[in-house]
């Protein structure tokens, strides 16, 4: 089956490695990054960015979404400001749920076979599944 994958949070780390691995294996993919020169950039917490990601997913006929976006600041909980806590929760949880909701509306009506994967920058809340390695992703995409 033909697959086209959209990966959020693909600017560095696991997301970038995932994009590189998919491309090496001739899987068509689109990457979203927070900033830079990529085709699809922007803060996932911003409504216009999520709308652009959803529109791209639809117009590019993607059928796999990998939510890899996430932020984490390495410090004690006592050192976090309220603003930082809300930013982490909004980025890692709320924005991916809203993005998934927008894409599911399209997928459930138009595409008979689709997959949505969630990654987490740390052991946070995951609503669909937790994927721990690229090997698992590779098997899942087959």
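^ structure tokens above, recovered residues below v
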């Amino acid at each position: 089956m033909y697959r086209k994958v959209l990966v959020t949070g693909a600017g560095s780390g696991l997301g970038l490695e995932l994009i590189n691995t998919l491309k090496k294996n001739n899987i068509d993919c689109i990457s979203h990054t927070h900033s830079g020169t990529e085709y699809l950039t922007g803060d996932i917490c911003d409504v216009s960015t999520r709308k652009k990601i959803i529109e791209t997913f639809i117009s590019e006929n993607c059928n796999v979404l990998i939510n890899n976006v996430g932020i984490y600041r390495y410090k004690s909980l006592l050192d976090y400001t309220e603003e930082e806590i809300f930013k982490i929760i909004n980025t890692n949880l709320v924005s991916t749920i809203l993005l998934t909701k927008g894409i599911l509306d399209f997928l459930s009506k138009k595409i008979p076979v689709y997959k949505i994967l969630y990654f987490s920058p740390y052991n946070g809340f995951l609503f669909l599944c937790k994927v721990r390695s690229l090997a698992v992703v590779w098997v899942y995409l087959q």
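Confidence is low (pLDDT under 50) at residues 122-140.
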